[in-house]
Fold this sequence. Notes:
3 domains, Memb_transporter_dom, membrane, transmembrane helix, transmembrane, cell membrane
Amino acid sequence: MTxxxxxKDAARSGLTIERTKLTPLIAIRGSVGVALxxxxxxxxxxxxxxxxxxxxAFSSGIVTFQRSxxxxxxxxxxxxxxxxxxxxxxxxxxxxxxxxxxxxxxxxFLAGMAWAIGPVAGLAGTQTVxxxxxxxxxxxxxxxxxxxxxxxxxxxxxxxxxxxVFPVRPxxxxxxxxxxxxxxxxxxxxxxxxxxxxxxDPAPLMDARIASAVTPRQARRRPVxxxxxxxxxxxxxxxxxSLADPVVGAPLEGPERDRAxxxxxxxxxxxxxxxxxxxxxxxxxxxPEAMAVLEVPATGPMLHxxxxxxxxxxxxxxxxxxxxxxxPVEATRPTTEGERGHLLRPSVPRLVPVALRALxxxxxxxxxxxxxALRVAAVAVAGYLLGTVLPFGHGYxxxxxxxxxxxxxxxxxxxxxxxxxxxxxxxxGVAGGLMALAHPGLYVSAALAVVCVALMYLxxxxxxxxxxxxxxAYVVFLLGIAxxxxxxxxxxxxVLTLVGGLLAMLSYALFPAWETPRLRDGxxxxxxxxxxxxxxxxxxxxxxxxRRPRQIRDALLDSRAxxxxxxxxxxRAEKEPVRHRGLSRASAKAAGAALATMGRVTMILEVHLPExxxxxxxxxxxxxxxxxxxxxxxxxxxxxxxxxxxxxxRAVWERWDAExxxxxxxxxxxxxxxxxxxxLAEALSREPAEADGAPGDEAPGTAHDTARGGADGTERNxxx
Length: 720
């Protein structure tokens, strides 16, 4: 992709306005928190404190809208505490330019590294830098700084209190995550009717698993409806795939295929009904037609062999899903020890070592998070110095704009930069026009600021350009409370926002962290994870008496995490003005499809695991032994652009096929597995297509980064 096309796509993405479900009650609750804090400060007669304290309630309200499974009051208090600390430290160093520059650089670097912990932590870190830049411009003493910090924390406390006193749809995030997983499986069942090998994105199941982790306090209050359906959803998906697969399940044509289609359609209907019940906290309502399909016909079973076993298991799982979901929707019960296990979410103090390990993993030169932290720290300092030199006043707006738009990847940084400038232009234009025409007083300006906050909360998920417009107008009205002239405010805001956005974009061009050179490493990680999952399953066929279900489950989760990391990496690479010299985009897509097939085949095989007392399979033993040896060589070949060869594994399968007359599920699945691996080798053997990028479309530093990508650029995104 050329630079011109990449910039055009980024601009289009930043200005896109999405249609999304609005949450007016939550928006009203958050804006009431801001109004209470501003009103209290104005009642005391101090407009400067009103401006300062409003940021605490404002930022604490923003973080509660993020897709985090943590309790919302905890998020509001944690962010408010971080904002208060950053404000106080900023005040202490504000009187000395050098000291403040060192503090700003160090604090911004830590805020940038917070993206290693997660997106919510990264956003919270960004907010702390913003509050440091804004509030230190308001004159005060050390005692006054403590008062400012206390009021900022008070704003978060107000938001947390409102969430507790006026809960809006409790457990809504968890319900939506579980319902989305069930609805995705319902859609998958319907697609399997037409395409027996249709792909399935496991992301909804991964989100549901994250949502099912609870704190000890949540474990005592979780609704009954949220206890069991996720585990059933995990077990339903491979059964659906096994029933539909033409090699392992029902034949491709004939009465058995018709029966399989009917069962898949009924499964989709039942899963949709369960998803609707979970999402809206209602009892399950099932059409009688679907229930009739899920009964064994009067003429007897129409399916045979592995397909019949899959059908019976599907009917049983769907019945359990309906029974578990059709509990009294208001009832709660404690999570049992067996249900909790590794899904017990650690408390906030216990997150400290987890966060430190995440930071340690990203403390490498090849890490895109480390490069982002260095980049944003340098830009914040440069922007602050530049804003101080420029004859506008409010020079902190330049670094503020930079910090708010910068993200660890290219596409988000550039799209947010464009959206920030256009949104600011609209916001200050509208707000400046109202200030010029109406000349609002103190309390009217405060009311208009609260209205802008309410609109931002309401429209937060529609697009960054919309929220930027609301924030820009909010700042104009908020500074109007402190007596700043609207003419100067509008001019400064537009110019300095443009300067800050240009600094952010220029920094990424000069010091990039391209994802493209890391594609082969991500592909190798996914292959290794898929291989370990397949080995865990085939080992059980080789030695049925040594059942290790936990090992298989862990391998499956690792495989999903590697797939999620690859898909995130591939999506980022597609938007970059860089090309990979050893992997074309067509080859990358074909290789990803082959590995997805490999995972699907292994998942189907897991459905038909033998019992403990079953006989060991010599063929499976030999196949697993050769797969283990070939996997290590193939993984290294993918990383180093070597030749991937599965001929030895194919030869082992052919011997197994010649010796095994039963043609069991394991043998047939092994054939599909080798076919998928051959497809992977074929995809990687293709020469990179010239159409993927012109010879001159590499960005500054690309050749250097590409060389590093082969040598030491092996760190993954960790997006799984």
